[in-house]
Each structure stands twice: as structure tokens, then as C-alpha cells.
Write a structure and sequence with these properties.
By secondary structure, the protein is of the alpha/beta class. Helices cover 37% and strands 18% of the residues. Strands 3-2-4-5-1-6-12-11-7-8 form a 10-stranded mixed beta sheet.
Length: 723
């Protein structure tokens, strides 16, 4: 076997799942296990149907001339196919002996038995066309090097001591490692399928292994991911290794940067919209759905059918049911039937803990949509870990804007790598460490705002307005396409002395403003504290203070003060304020920042897309819509960075101008919490695309439920499977 072999078709089935997409979802979510016991009660497809499934995934309409089989000898379903050669041999033997017949341009490898049916299509690399999807490539050159290459280690029944030896062989090389235990010893095909799915969908699979203290040093290049995580490295020599077999992925066929998947369609909760003109018609739809729920076996089919009905016949009101299972859906229906009448009567929204939602006053009909961008403190350990699986198109879009996505996102800071499970104390310490690196979290925060904005656009949602909190304004201009080349902004921020040393880092602007000697520690120069008191109350308390400023007004009863830490703490103690330190050494929104005004204008002067969109951009520099002009944008951001930010004033201005639906397109949901407090007596809805402590999939389902019920036009086809 001298030619490379490309995996172009995949199928896997057991008693839990069917097909490549469901396999991907189970593998990524950490639910997948391979069992050696004989699941005799499991009904599996015969070899002929199994081959058809694989051909379908490969986009082929005819059988190749050779099929290799291993497993159930009693299955002779392939015998009635003309002009094919059936060979009883496993792929591992062919790879090990390097004896694949090069005259074969394409072959299918099948395995059936022990409760599993699986297989792949392999094509000679010279036969690949642009129409082929290439999941991975088996390269004889790589395999001849045996254990000398770095990459993703799939532990195919290997004893942990042997795994440690394998790691030590490559220790010190510039490489990464993940261990995923496979206990399937009858065929190598599950390993090939697992490695191919990981490569194609760019992720390290979650692992239950723990090899810390078994001879592998903590500072080694290897790690064991507690949760599946994105694989950012696209270099050719990063490979998947199982026993002595290597896979890699290359730019053959249509293997472009866009690797579509159906993760959302195979994940839960299910989303079922029921639309009607009044209470009676909605309850009638609910009865119909309950009847169908008792009849239809496959919930994914039922949910898609009801979504299609909704699209065809959208009415004034919409209830959206969300749940993970049939039993939970029945409970949601029970809650709905009890609560719908009260919701219509009171005018209050109906919502369940699962996220099912109904509003009797849809705001999306006439209200405007505003995208909201959080500030620099929104980044946290593990943020957005699943974003590239949920929205696979984002990797290509993001990579087209920034050259090194991993470095911009700060992957190894946000997703710390280790050889064992992270403790709660480790995560807390990681969060504290992240907040001390202003430059990194600024760049990463902007990146995630851009990614969540792209994801929102992917649902067909377009904003009428944009507003940002503090440094969130930079994320806003970046994410809403105001700048022609936002990558320049990322580069400038990383290189800017203003952000390295003047307003952060050594706080040189503060030292110059107060004539502070060089030997004084940064922690003795600048501190920031959130205090729970009204702006008027705090303003009065600071009347005679020279080294303490109000920098941010979050709500009517929450402000941020900053300045000399001793003076800040003295005032807090004197006034008896409830408070907490922000632990972010960033001297913006204060008089010292004005020393950097011209540098800030220069930093944010970039070519703009003057006619990019009709989205109005609101800034706290003037609490108005900013013209899309280079100098107007640059001066607006510079002024925002130098002056106090009054977030309630900004939010109320957008509300006055018609905003009713606020979507926080960034990490956490801090801005949503403040908006709900600011507009507590005004009809509005706020939704976050990311919430710390809640998975993105559960968060986005709740977002979708609210927005659908409020009448926002959305394209949700990615949540539903094909029949």
C-alpha cells in the first residue's frame, strides 16, 4: 500500500444510535462507548443495507468492485450484487502488511457483530474528485514512522501503562494529545471512524481517563480533555493515532474549511412551535400535538413536522415547547394547558423551568431588535467551548477574518489543559488569572462577540440597533461589520502601548497623572469596585475626593468607582456600601485616560464600511446613533474610553428610539441582567446567547423559544433532521 487512502464515507450503528451525524453528536457529548459484549437483542442492518448507508454518506450511487467484510459469516446479503469481489479481511491487516491492492480505486470495509454495524468507504487518493467529502487520509509514510508522530491518541484497548510509554516516546515534541478509550478489539473500523469524525469536525473527544502521576510530567505537551474541545491546529502533521495506525486530513476533494455537520439537529432539547390566533386555537394545536406525541415513535420527525407547519401557517401567537424527552414534553403540555388562560388574562409571559415560552404581547411585530455587547470582564474559563460544533460554518468565517483563530481566542488560556479533571478551585483560580490579563481578555472578548454575532446572523436575525457596554463598543464596531478589516484592530490592540503599559500593565498614564514614583506597585495605584448605591448618592460621597472617580453606572442602584485603592476602600467603609472588587487593572472612563486620547483616536482609526447595513450604532460617547465615518467612530470610542459610561442612559435612549428586543451577543448575560433592571417598568425582552454555567445548546434553545414567541422571523432548519 504505497498510495494514500481517503475515508470518504462513514456509517456506524448500535442499539443507541444510527448514522454518522448521531455518532458525531454522541462522541462529542461524551455519551459514546464501545462494548464487546454480545448484544444479541440488537437488530442490525444486513451487509447489503450497511453498504448502502455507507455509499449514501459517500455520495456514491453504485457499489465499488471490492467489499471487505469482517463479522457475521451467516450474512450472505451481498451475494446477489453483480460484479463485486467479497474479501473476508479486516482493514487492520491490510494497513499492517501494506498490501492494499493499488488496482482498486475504491473499496468498502464492513464489520457487523457484537451489537455493532459499521464501515467506511476508502478511495485511492489519486481517484478523489472535487465532489468527494474527505474525512481523513491513511498515509503509509506516516504509518511507517510508528510512534514518532504527535497527535490525537485514540486508546484502542491499550493498558494505561502502555499509553504512558507512548506519551513519553514523543515527550518534548511540539504536539498535543488526547486519550479516548476504545474497548472494541474485533475490528479497527470503529477506531478509523472515531478518528475520522474527530479530524473532520475538528475536536478532541472528551475522555474519562486520568494519567496524572503515572510518569507523565505536568509540563508535557500532552493533555486529557475533560470535555470535548475544538482542535484549532490545521497543520498536516497533526494526526490521529490508534495503536500503530495514523490518520491525517488534507485538502483533497471538497474538504474545504467549511465542514458542515448536523450537531444541532441531533442534540436536544427539541423545539416545537404551536401557533394560533387565540387561546382556543392554540389549545386545539396542543391537543393535536399531544395526540401525535402518543402515536409517533421518533420525536425528531415530529418536531420537524410541527416546525414546518409553523413556517407554513404562522399566526398571531406562538407557544414554543422545549424538552429533552417524550415524558418532559408531556409535562410541558400539562403546564401549558394550566397556564395559558392566566397568561392571556394577566398579560404576563408564560415560561417553564425547561424554557417553554409564550407571550400574549409579541414585541417582534413592531419592536426593533438591538444587539448588545458586554465589556471586558465577560470572558471566563470554558466560555463558548461548543460553539464550533453547534455552528460549524463559523470556523471558516472566523478564519477568513483572523489568521490564527487559536491565538485570538486565547484557546489555551480559556480551555486550560491538564492530565486530570479540573477542580472547582482550579477553575476559580483560572478565572482570576484570566481577569489579570487585560490585553488577552480584551482580544478574546471581541472574538467571542464576533462569533456570537455570526451565529445570530446564521438564524436570519438582523439587528436594527447595536449598543455596547464600555469596551463592548469596540466589539460592537467589529462584530457589526463597521470596520472593513477588523483583524487590524485585533493586531493593533495586541501591539498598542496604550493597552500594554499606559492604561493597563504598568499603568503609566495613572502614574503620570498623579506623579507616582516608579517603585510603587500597580496594586497600590489603581483599584475598581462595584458598589450598590445610586449614582446620586455616590456622586455626593465623592464631592471632595481627588483620587476616586465614578467610571461606570450599571443600573440605578449599581455603580463602579475606581482610583487609589486606599481612598476607594476608605469611602466604601465610611459610607457602608455593599461592594465587591473587580480585580481588573484598567484605567479607562477616568481623567487619567485623557492623557491617551489622541493615541486612542489613532488606534481606532480604521477604514469603515459606510453603507454596510442600516443598523444604527449607539455609543455612550454621546448617547446617539454614530455616523459610519472613520473619524466619527474613532473619536466616539476614544471619548467613551475617557469618560464615565452611563449604561441606563444608553439603554433608555435605544428604548426611546424603538428597541424592544435586546439580544446579548457575547459571553455571560451581565448586560441582560442590567437591561431588565433598567427597563423593569417597561415592556421589553432580553436574551443572552451565552450564560456561564449553562451549556450553549440549552441557552440558545431558550433564546429561540422566546424570540419565536415574540414573532421574530428566524430560520431554524439547522435544529431539525431530514426525514
Amino acid at each position: 500500500m504505497n498510495s494514500k487512502l481517503a475515508v470518504t464515507g462513514i456509517y456506524y450503528e448500535n442499539r443507541y444510535l444510527k448514522g454518522r451525524d448521531e455518532f458525531h453528536r454522541y462522541l462529542y457529548d461524551g455519551y459514546l462507548s464501545y462494548e464487546n459484549d454480545d448484544n444479541s437483542g440488537t437488530s442490525l442492518p444486513d451487509y447489503k443495507d450497511l453498504a448502502r448507508h455507507i455509499l449514501n454518506d459517500a455520495g456514491m450511487d453504485s457499489y465499488p468492485n471490492t467489499i471487505f467484510v469482517l463479522g457475521d459469516d451467516s450474512d450472505d446479503s451481498l451475494n446477489d450484487i453483480d460484479n463485486i469481489r467479497i474479501v473476508k479481511q479486516d482493514l487492520s491487516e491490510i494497513i499492517e502488511n501494506h498490501n492494499f491492492d493499488e488496482r482498486i480505486s475504491c473499496a468498502i470495509f464492513l464489520y457487523k457483530g457484537n451489537g455493532v454495524a459499521c464501515g467506511v468507504t476508502l478511495k485511492n487518493i489519486n481517484e478523489i474528485s472535487e465532489a468527494d467529502r474527505v474525512y481523513s487520509v491513511i498515509d503509509p509514510e506516516l504509518n511507517s514512522k510508528k510512534g514518532s508522530l504527535p497527535g490525537l491518541y485514540i486508546n484502542d484497548g491499550m493498558d494505561e501503562k502502555d499509553l504512558v510509554k507512548e506519551l513519553l516516546i514523543s515527550n518534548g515534541r511540539k504536539s498535543y494529545c488526547s486519550s479516548f478509550r476504545l474497548d472494541f478489539k474485533y475490528s479497527i473500523l470503529p477506531s478509523v471512524i472515531t478518528g475520522s469524525v474527530c479530524l473532520y469536525n475538528r475536536f478532541f473527544p472528551a475522555s474519562g481517563s486520568n494519567i496524572e502521576g503515572r510518569g507523565v510530567e505536568k509540563n508535557s505537551p500532552f493533555f486529557i480533555p475533560e470535555k470535548s474541545m475544538t482542535w484549532f491546529n490545521k497543520e498536516r502533521d497533526v494526526s490521529v493515532k490508534f495503536n500503530d495506525i495514523f490518520l491525517n486530513i488534507e485538502g483533497y476533494g471538497n474538504n474545504t474549511d467549511i465542514h458542515p455537520n448536523k450537531y444541532l439537529a441531533y442534540a436536544t432539547p427539541y423545539i416545537i412551535p404551536l401557533s394560533g390566533d387565540d387561546e382556543t386555537s392554540i389549545l386545539r394545536k396542543a391537543d393535536m400535538f399531544e395526540d401525535d406525541l402518543n402515536k409517533v415513535d421518533i420525536l425528531s420527525t415530529l418536531s420537524k413536522r410541527y416546525y414546518e407547519k409553523y413556517v407554513e401557517d404562522k399566526r398571531k401567537y406562538t407557544v414554543v415547547l422545549t424538552a429533552d424527552s417524550r415524558d418532559e414534553l408531556k409535562k410541558e403540555l400539562h403546564f401549558l394547558k394550566k397556564g395559558l388562560a392566566g397568561s392571556f388574562k394577566s398579560g404576563e409571559d408564560f415560561i417553564t423551568p425547561n424554557g417553554s415560552y409564550f407571550t400574549p404581547d409579541p414585541l417582534g411585530v413592531n419592536g426593533k431588535i438591538a444587539f448588545v455587547y458586554p465589556g471586558v470582564g465577560s470572558i471566563y474559563t470554558g466560555v463558548g467551548q461548543d460553539i464550533f460544533q453547534m455552528y460549524p460554518e463559523l470556523f471558516s468565517l472566523f478564519s477568513s477574518i483572523v489568521k490564527k483563530p487559536s491565538e485570538v481566542i486565547k484557546e489555551q488560556i480559556l480551555y486550560p489543559r491538564s492530565l486530570s479533571k479540573h477542580s472547582e478551585n482550579f477553575i476559580k483560580e483560572s478565572d482570576r488569572s484570566i481577569r489579570s490579563d487585560i490585553k488577552s481578555i480584551s482580544e478574546s472578548g471581541i472574538a467571542f462577540c464576533l462569533l456570537y454575532t455570526m451565529a445570530t446572523y446564521g438564524f436570519g436575525i438582523n439587528p436594527d440597533m447595536g449598543l455596547g457596554y464600555s469596551m463592548g463598543e469596540v466589539a460592537m464596531f467589529t462584530s457589526l461589520g463597521v470596520w472593513k478589516n477588523p483583524a487590524k484592530m485585533s493586531k493593533r490592540l495586541s501591539e498598542s502601548k496604550t493597552f500594554k503599559n499606559r492604561l493597563t500593565g504598568n499603568l503609566e498614564a495613572v502614574r503620570d497623572y498623579w506623579n507616582i514614583e516608579k517603585g510603587v506597585e500597580n496594586s497600590d495605584i489603581w483599584g475598581q469596585y462595584t458598589v450598590f448605591a445610586s449614582y446620586q448618592e455616590v456622586e455626593k460621597a465623592l464631592e471632595n475626593e481627588e483620587r476616586v472617580f465614578i467610571t461606570l453606572v450599571n443600573t440605578d442602584d449599581e455603580v463602579v468607582i475606581a482610583g487609589d485603592p486606599k481612598d476607594c476602600l476608605r469611602i466604601i467603609e465610611r459610607e457602608g456600601y455593599r461592594n465587591f472588587p473587580l480585580n481588573i487593572a484598567l484605567a479607562i472612563h477616568s481623567p487619567p485616560a485623557y492623557l491617551e486620547y489622541e493615541k486612542l483616536v489613532e488606534l481606532f482609526s480604521l477604514d469603515v464600511n459606510e453603507d454596510r447595513s442600516d443598523t444604527q450604532i449607539y455609543s455612550s460617547s454621546c448617547y446617539l446613533n454614530i455616523p459610519k465615518r472613520e473619524k466619527a467612530v474613532a473619536n466616539s470610542i476614544a471619548k467613551t474610553f475617557c469618560e464615565k459610561v452611563d449604561f441606563p442612559k444608553l439603554v433608555n435612549k435605544t428604548y426611546e428610539d424603538g428597541a424592544r428586543i435586546y439580544i446579548e451577543t457575547g459571553p455571560r448575560k451581565i448586560c441582560c441582567q442590567w437591561i431588565d433592571e433598567i427597563l423593569k417598568d417597561k415592556r421589553h425582552v432580553s436574551v443572552p446567547f451565552n450564560v456561564k454555567g449553562i451549556s450553549d445548546i440549552n441557552t440558545v434553545v431558550k433564546v429561540v423559544a422566546k424570540l419565536l414567541s415574540h414573532g421574530v422571523d428566524m430560520n431554524l432548519t439547522k435544529f431539525y433532521r431530514a426525514y
